[in-house]
Amino acid sequence: MNSAASTWLPVSQVISRNLSVFEASSSLLVVNAPEIGVWQQWSADTVLHFFSQDFRVHSELQQAGFQSHFAAVVNELPDNADVLLYWPKSKELARMLLSMLLSLMDAGRQLWIVGEHQEGVKSAAKILLEDHEIELSKLDNARRCTLYRVTVDRAFPVFDIETWLHYSSVVLDDTELQVVSLPGVFSLGELDEGTALLLPNMKLPELGRVLDFGCGAGIIGAVAKRRNPQLDIELIDVSALALESARRTLAQNGIEALVYPSNAWSDIEGRFKVVLSNPPFHTGIKTDYRAVTELIAQARKKIVYDGWLEVVANAHLPYEGWLQEQFKRVAVVAETTKFKVYSARG
Q1: pLDDT digits (tens, 9 = 90+) for 125-154
Q2: Cα–Cα distance for residue pair 344/202, rounded to 1 Å
Q3: Tell me: domain 165-345, CATH 1.10.340.30, correct?
Q4: DSSP-assigned letter for residue 316
């Protein structure tokens, strides 16, 4: 293992010590790699393809010259492709990904699964047996991770994303919204406490562009548009699953808004009257403040002179200090024992 590998995630280190396992494949589809470093040392003749539901990783892969596809679902596999799946934190998302991938794989192809124990990869054996009556074998166990192999032995049913959609209803004082969510999207099937505090307290302008930053299933942007149809609402997220959920939430409620991927501000053009957000602070099960720190660091430049940022956060997190470093006026406009809604201007 080279010196750079010591900084990689544990799953990447396990892949690095098992790269020879994949070299017999003529084509390999890598699904949801969390980082790209290990694949930059690939030297075998195997043709690598990547599928990512994370726009940040997808962009890094493309910039590094790899073939990468960003979407909520895979509709077809490259010819003669075996598959390596990185296990997600969400067990239901894992079930969906397995059903999707197995439905596309020919008998005799190999499916490898790698993941961290604390993210639940050990449940792969039970899920495959219960859902698909298929057994797997363990290839490696290191760095608190396991690498498994499955030999596909038959054709599996056609995958239908419609069967994985969750529908729920959000009722506020002035509106009712039907929310559509896919597995792996934050607060699946329910309104989280933070968003529930933000919605009745968010201030909207009469006109202008409003951004739902880190939109998830699209609740904040949809409610804003429902309250004031004159607004130009845009919803962004790094997750293909969130973007697909947001599009479906908007369609379900007859609401029109612009939905597109962006890694923080990477693909956002122009300036906004208001930016609204309940930003994530986890990647998998690990704390990750990248999204919120990038949101706050650049928000002032992306908001017009008389605009504002409204963000909800866990009360124990240091958002107020971060906001005060960038904005002249920061106020708490609503709070509970668990959450605070901040408004920042100037």
Answers
A1: 999 999 999 999 999 999 999 999 999 999
A2: 12
A3: no
A4: T
Q: Domain 3-158 belongs to what topology?
A: Rossmann fold (3.40.50)
Residue 138: beta bridge partners?
148
Domain ranges of the chain: 3-158, 165-345
Question: How many angstroms from the chain centroid is the CA of residue 182?
Answer: 11
Supply the DSSP string of 86-155, one letter for each residue.
EPPS-HHHHHHHHHHHHHHPPTT-EEEEEEEGGGTGGGHHHHHHHHH----EEEEEETTEEEEEEE--S-
Identity at 27, one-letter amino acid code: S
Residues 6+ apart with CB under 8 A from 57: 32, 33, 34, 35, 36
- Cα-based distances in Å from 5 to 21, 64, 142, 243: 18, 17, 15, 32
User: From edge to edge, which strands make up the β-sheet containing 303-314?
Assistant: 258-261, 232-237, 209-213, 272-277, 303-314, 339-345, 329-335
Q: Residue 250: which of 273, 230, 225, 231 has the closest Cα? A: 225
Q: How confident is the model at residue 186 (pLDDT cuts 50, 70, 90)?
A: confident
- Structure-token pair, residue 322: 């971060």
Residue 332: both structure tokens together: 């708490």
Cα 266 to Cα 261: distance, rounded to the nearest angstrom: 9
- Any idea what DSSP says for residue 1? -
State pTM to two decimals: 0.95
